[in-house]
Amino acid sequence: MQTAHQSALSAKHAVLDRQIAAETQRPLPDAATLAALKKQKLRIKQELAQI
Question: Which Pfam family, just one, is annotated for this protein (predicted)?
């Protein structure tokens, strides 16, 4: 059973995934932005794994 916190984290993870995909589709993706987004996504993934 998912808690509200887990659902919120999953939603944030999905949003970050879409943002990463959108950034990589750009003609000149910003490496710093991509790195920051991926770092946030990893933190959320790790937090979900600990729950």
Answer: DUF465
